[in-house]
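OP here, attaching both records as promised.
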Amino acid sequence: MKLLQIITTGGTIDKIYYDEKSDYQIGEPEIGRILDDMHVAFRWQIQPLLRKDSLQLTEADRELVRRAVEASDAEHFLITHGTDTMVETARVLQGMSDRVVVLTGALNPARFIGSDAVFNIGCSVGAVQSLPPGVWIVMNGRVWDPDRVRKNRSENRFEAIE
């Protein structure tokens, strides 16, 4: 892997809690801080593209993500994304046979103790280096085909579609 191109779109992974307002807002991308803290041994570049909750993403936003991947010379992509509509965005990205694209996110903000963000990013970094070209979702310690997974909101996890 020459370079890992990281595209950020917002979502819970980047949310910050504002106590005075009792409100969550999407802040700066957290993935750069996480990778720095982990002293990773590969080159990476962050492209902050959107700062939205995934429930607010439009088809135009998803096309913007696709165009960003298509416009890059990189072969390996990690996209941080909100979990509620991650599958929909992954499906829009399908069909790029010369790139490995992994989408991941977090069910709790990266800044929270006990967040799954660091685990999901670590799994995604390993996956993006070892998977064949295609579009993949990495959540809950598993690699998913976007056509065979869904988010189970009541269980707050991803699961296979039977």
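Record two, same layout:
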Amino acid sequence: MKVFFDEDNGTAIPRALRGVGAPNADILFPRPGGPILPGAPDVEWLEFVGRNGYLAISQNRHILDVPVEREALIRESCGVVFLANGEQPAYRALQLLLNRWDWLQTLDANETRPFAYILPFRGKAAKVI
């Protein structure tokens, strides 16, 4: 599974997942010298995610409300999981992702793209695209 973390997640979560050896994962996030630079517009990383088969993790649900960004998500056949509340500390988001890792792998392997889910810290994930 190839996972791209939107910049709004920070770097601690993807670095921690790399550090613990998240199973079957190629983990990317915006960084100097990387394929997506810090500060890149959402449309740019959505295009990268879709064209390269990454599952994106984001805390920016406003992507769904901005027409050009929502259109890019759909046009580029992206798979995106939005964490429901960006106000949680990073360790809680990391805990959520680790607890739902098997679900993320299944989603990535079996869900027809484009798709977008909202993954709450409590309760079931909801498909929004």
